[in-house]
Amino acid sequence: MKYDDASWHYGGDFPADLPPSAGVTHIAMFAVWCWENGLAGDEILEEADALEAIKRRRGTPGGIFNKASDEKFIDADLNDEGNRFAASYYGDQGYYIDYAKSVGATFSTLYHVPDTWETYDKLKPVISHRYRTFHNMQKSWWRRLWPIAKQ
To answer: How far apart are CA 26 and CA 16, in angstroms?
Structure first.
């Protein structure tokens, strides 16, 4: 399954003053967060250079993502838990809303958000919160169906 592809963004209404690489920033911020937080798929785990670059913050999130994933965010980039989270949060547009509110409010378009670790650091706690909420709901789905009586 393909979640996103930079080529979907840098055509059409894409700002003429930006390079095509600006079409990957929003994708990279989410993917790099996943990879940094134990949700990388086997193909990414084989990309030791990418994981080391994230750890040491060498390059930019977009540059690391592009090198590891060729501008495409697909299910193979994530493990099973990562895919469930991506389908729930990235796939239902919740991520885009958080991205716009957290890092995009001061820019003329979301494509103008800089591909920097500073941007990533602003978005990181938001994604972390969404993941904790998602993870807690996944762990307790059965409790919503069969409430446990208090003793």
So the answer is: 18
